[in-house]
DNA sequence: CACAGCACCTGCCCGC
DNA sequence: TGCGGGCAGGTGCTGT
């Protein structure tokens, strides 16, 4: 569920609190909450480690530790990182608890559907090894626009599939792909190699634009499955033009088209029937 | 290789 | 009121 803007909202919220915190204890309350490590691994390594930085690429974020390893956090569809009042009773779907005895705080990983996880990983050039397989996101200095445009323009795949491919450009999910394509007036099923360079650049610029605006709004919350580290919702849902707007008129002035919801690639897309013309 | 389909989960909402 | 089906912001595996 959370895409780059929601993950960034969590990352920046964490950063304000946890830098310098020393983990004293880790409890794994659900076996699916960790991947590629064991409870033993985490309990052996984490106690005594200080958090030195909170970093992110696309939808992956990680706590950088003072032993030069990273504790990766992926929110999946329903993951949350909360910094609760320790006296309150914990959330029903609490999966991992990190205790910080020195400041009497806890970092809670909460996840209803258990598609999210944490993983302890080694770094390679400042990025966790398992995160290196995804492409940089549009906000990173490592991001190479030219390479992304080339990849899309060489592909026989539908442009929306390419936007969702974290190996092409990371951080974009179903909401912001639909929003960017609406802003660029490109139908999601247009084929990558049939787009002009200017069209591809426009789509990517719109991805960056819409995600930047969503970060400023604290992300998109349809319900309490996405909240920041203080448990508060974001309000970008008010600014959505296409996603979830099926049946409503296209918000573009004088367009008079209807926002349509259609299923392909195993999921739904939302687009304007008029200003995002279907490929031939 | 690309790609479709489905699996992984829980909970909510809708129609009957 | 209850049950079954469909749906949800993501990822990754399988078989063709």
Structural overview:
The chain is of the alpha+beta class and 280 residues long. The protein has 2 domains: 4-131, MutM-like, N-terminal (N-terminal domain of MutM-like DNA repair proteins, Alpha-Beta Barrel), CATH 3.20.190; 145-272, Helicase, Ruva Protein, domain 3 (Orthogonal Bundle). 24% of the residues lie in helices and 22% in strands. It is built from 6 helices and 11 strands. It has a 5-stranded antiparallel sheet, covered by helices on one side. The chain has a 4-stranded antiparallel sheet with strand order 1-6-7-5. A hairpin with a 2-residue loop joins strand 2 (51-57) and strand 3. Helix 3 crosses helix 6. The longest helix is centred in the C-terminal third of the chain and has 20 residues, at 197-216. The model has no long low-confidence stretch (mean pLDDT 95). The chain binds a DNA duplex (16 and 16 nucleotides) through helix 5.
The helicity comes to 10-25%
Contiguous helical run count: 6
Strand content: 15-25%
Low-confidence stretches: none
**What is the general shape?**
globular
Summarize the structure.
By secondary structure, this protein is α+β, with helices and mostly antiparallel strands. It has helices at residues 4-18, 39-45, 145-153, 159-164, 174-184, 197-216; strands at 25-28, 51-57, 60-65, 69-74, 79-82, 94-100, 105-111, 117-124, 127-128, 259-264, 267-272.
Keywords:
280 residues; alpha+beta; N-terminal domain of MutM-like DNA repair proteins; Helicase, Ruva Protein, domain 3; 2 domains; five-stranded antiparallel beta sheet; four-stranded antiparallel beta sheet; 6 helices; 11 strands; 24% helix; 22% strand; DNA-binding
